[in-house]
Amino acid sequence: MLQLSFALSRHVLLRKRLLASCKRPAAFMSTLLINQPQYAWLKDLGLKEENEGVYNGIWGGRGELVTTCCPANDEPIASVRQASLEDYEETIKKAKEAWKIWADVPAPKRGEIVRQIGDALRKKIKDLGSLVSLEMGKIFVEGVGEVQEYVDVCDYAVGLSRMIGGPVLPSERPGHALIEQWNPVGLVGIITAFNFPVAVYGWNNAIAMICGNACLWKGAPTTSLISVAVTKIVAKVLEDNKVPGAICSLICGGADIGTAMARDERVDLLSFTGSTKVGKQVALMVQERFGRSLLELGGNNAIVVFEDADLNLVIPSALFAAVGTAGQRCTSARRLFLHESIHDEVVEKLAKAYAQVRIGDPWDSTTLYGPLHTKQAVMMFLDAVEQAEQQGGSVVYGGKVLNRPGNYVEPTIVTDLPHNASIVHTETFAPILYVLKFKTEEEVFAWNNEVKQGLSSSIFTKDLGRIFRWLGPKGSDCGVVNVNIPTSGAEIGGAFGGEKHTGGGRESGSDSWKLYMRRSTCTINYSKDLPLAQGIKFQ
Ligand SMILES: NC(=O)c1ccc[n+]([C@@H]2O[C@H](COP(=O)([O-])OP(=O)(O)OC[C@H]3O[C@@H](n4cnc5c(N)ncnc54)[C@H](O)[C@@H]3O)[C@@H](O)[C@H]2O)c1
């Protein structure tokens, strides 16, 4: 009992220390990173000490001033003036007006402007990638990778701008044509999460634009500088092409602005990326007004390793999926199911691989593993480790906060939990991997599917029959179903998204563009008669 209360008070003290270190008195403002010579490149992205967080053709913002902090050292970077509700109102009106012009631009011309956005991003890829590292906390190559994704999806969208179209269907009536016509929905609201502060906007923005929509973006408040820097690049392209900047409006803000977007009938499609908890509230608000939403919510992704798997693929895959981005990808592996015959060997090899992971400043080119994004995330990590232990888990690697500035925690492996322990069924957005033992294909496929989320999943096997059972109706129920590769690291060419509590949305490649358009079924009579369908005579 005494031991327990000691542990609890230690936990409370740690919480207090963590919370205290995020609060920055005004005196710290003079030491903003943007003013230090090694971060001078921030100014090349058009950033200043205090930035305006609203863009609708002109820059502004009358809301709260938010200073974002670097997760690797707790230092304040620069500030962004968020949007007030008045700014929101003004911006949405301008975005709706801008749409009227944009919808009349032929799709291939829209594609040409999106191509220029891709080129402008290419030129800034290093600086923008560095900003992602500095403000979000992911390692530099992943920061650059995010901008690359936006570039890639721009290229994809350029091609698509000459290809979107509907079929001409056979009509049962003589002298009639039956066609499907696709039109833009109008204004696409885009709310994004902190963990992909460039790519997720890019997936939505490039496709929505070539479809003929205007966009209104609200990023996460903790990555506001990234939202401003991206919008500066996009805005310049729009302005150079003499089309209204409000086609790509930005409205930095928190839950108040997000809620306003969800409730607003003028937002024709609301694309929301974030947690299942907030996504559900947003979906209900949109549904209440019979609006359209596209939901990209939480995951609880599993890797299943069969006895015939190539362990040379398994170990680096599990490492990348669980430890990459410090476990802060929606597709991060949270559950690792190992066949009982290889369980101990894989755990031992994986723990050795974890010990090799180079922890450091995310912008240092040798670093593989950086900090968590916020202090709250560190607390969630600690809570989850504590709960895992209470539910019977054994921490075989990590489990602790690292004693250094910033939000660093140890990448963590937990064994011995039952597959249905409540903590295993919870998405903790941190690098904790639950390793679970299984005996049969049937049970492990069922366990893969038993969580509420349905985003990503992978199996490792050489058995062809098993691979096709995994892809088939009784296999994985996720939106992303992989074989012999990790759960994370999707390509833009495919449709991305997940089922069940992941929300059912699809973004990026394949035919995801259809979600950004409305379909009309059109029947045109070019004869002099009026035959009715189904042979009905009305005379
Ligand atoms: N499926 C995917 O494609 C995908 C991709 C990235 C992240 N995610 C998920 O996002 C989560 C992590 O991101 P997070 O912590 O930023 O998520 P979050 O739900 O806390 O926030 C997401 C966004 O919603 C906004 N928001 C908060 N309250 C709101 C409200 N009441 N109304 C409208 N908007 C509101 C936030 O400001 C932010 O912009 C994880 O669950 C992760 O799995 C999913």
TrEMBL record:
PROSITE patterns: ALDEHYDE_DEHYDR_GLU. It catalyses: an aldehyde + NAD(+) + H2O = a carboxylate + NADH + 2 H(+); (S)-2-amino-6-oxohexanoate + NAD(+) + H2O = L-2-aminoadipate + NADH + 2 H(+); hexanal + NAD(+) + H2O = hexanoate + NADH + 2 H(+); (E)-non-2-enal + NAD(+) + H2O = (E)-non-2-enoate + NADH + 2 H(+). Keywords: Acetylation, Cytoplasm, Mitochondrion, NAD, Nucleus, Oxidoreductase, Transit peptide. It comes from the Eukaryota. InterPro entries: Ald_DH/histidinol_DH (IPR016161), Ald_DH_C (IPR016163), Ald_DH_CS_GLU (IPR029510), Ald_DH_N (IPR016162), Aldehyde_DH_dom (IPR015590), ALDH7A1-like (IPR044638). It is found in: Cytoplasm, Cytosol; Mitochondrion; Nucleus. Pfam families: Aldedh (PF00171). Its EC number is 1.2.1.3, 1.2.1.31, 1.2.1.8. Belongs to the aldehyde dehydrogenase family. This is Alpha-aminoadipic semialdehyde dehydrogenase.
